[in-house]
Known about the structure:
By secondary structure, the protein is of the alpha+beta class. The protein has a single domain (10-181), classed as Peptide deformylase (Peptide Deformylase, Alpha-Beta Complex), CATH 3.90.45. Strand 8 and strand 9 form a beta hairpin. Helices cover 21% and strands 31% of the residues.
Amino acid sequence: MKEIIIIPHPTLRKEARLVTHVDKKLKSFISELEKTLNSKRNPRGVGLAAPQVDKLWRIFTINIDKIQSYINPRIVKKSNQLTFGPDENDPILEGCLSMPELYGPIPRHTWVDIEYQYIDGDKFSEKKVRLENFYARVFQHEIDHLDGILFTDYSLEYNLPVYKELSNNKYEEIDPTLLELF
């Protein structure tokens, strides 16, 4: 398993590089990334990007209904509508394995059309698909990691609260000036 780095580690602010070829090293890395995400508990993660394990490759893994890895993913089209989740009165609070115990409401596109590569034997194959709702939200969060963006950047940009998780599912808003340290 890989060690997940946390803020303010400098790799989290760098742009990841395209992956150009399939080899044993790449296959092994993806397997380890998937194992690392799959084993994460308290909190359980739904996504993990290569920069979060200190590797600047454009790869991430998502585990919602099943575990799936995306190589060189990109958003080719997105909805005009931004949302905080399905219930406007109860926004989804995003968290991040590289930002333990921090959560915040983040506006995300309701759907995204994506393209990505996956390993097909000893070569890459490409796939295009539309993701909606929670899956689209997670995908956008992971794409941000590949570009050196943290969810708290949106909190600063839109003047949104960020909460620190306390015990018993209680949260306390943190001072927004602390976000600038990340």
